[in-house]
Amino acid sequence: MSKVQVDTIDTRSGTSTMQIGSTNTSTINIGVSGDTVNIPSGVTIANAGTATGFGDDNAPSFRAYLGSVQAISNTTRTILAFNNDSGTTGGIKAYDTNNAFDTSTYRFTPQTAGYYYAYLYCGLQDLNSGNFYQINLCKNGSADGNKFSQFYIRQNGTDSIYGHTSGVAYLNGSSDYIVAVMQHNHGSNRNTGDTYNTGFGAYRLAGVS
Length: 209
What we know:
Layout: E1 61-64, E2 71-72, E3 78-79, E4 88-89, E5 92-93, E6 95-96, E7 101-102, E8 107-108, E9 114-127, E10 132-139, E11 147-154, E12 159-171, E13 178-184, E14 190-191, E15 199-204
Antiparallel strand pairs: 1-6, 1-15, 2-14, 3-13, 4-5, 7-8, 9-12, 9-15, 10-11, 10-13
């Protein structure tokens, strides 16, 4: 390996493009640990390749759906059994970027601290007129006091009913988790609505601390 020491590298007269690396090059290193690579004001960086390691992203994130309808007991706050975080339903893909969603406990427990935007949509079949239905996003349990987002409606007819709710919660990156919860007072068990009209997901709000 040889070393070239100069103060300035420039193109020759009549040439405006400088090529660093050629057919034998696989990796180009600029600087070493502790150095500052300065890009002056007015310079444009044009990227036609793949950029990695720059900035922040919204991971961990996930989206899950119900694999089958779920019976919801009367006047009981019930954690919704979102047990699918892969595949596609209703034309929308399910995913789990960091394996932070547990398909057996139905909890999203990301190991990265931050504020998370979460959303939930799910229906209930054949609710009697005058009865209520609600869905909640809850942090660290299904109790009413743990909810940070809610959709609530009282039925006017006798039909299936659907709702959507979303909210933001801070998760500590170790033990905090989010679950999706449903409750109704129909008088007897009711099933959730069509599985392809269900979704539970969350993603970290990049740059918010």
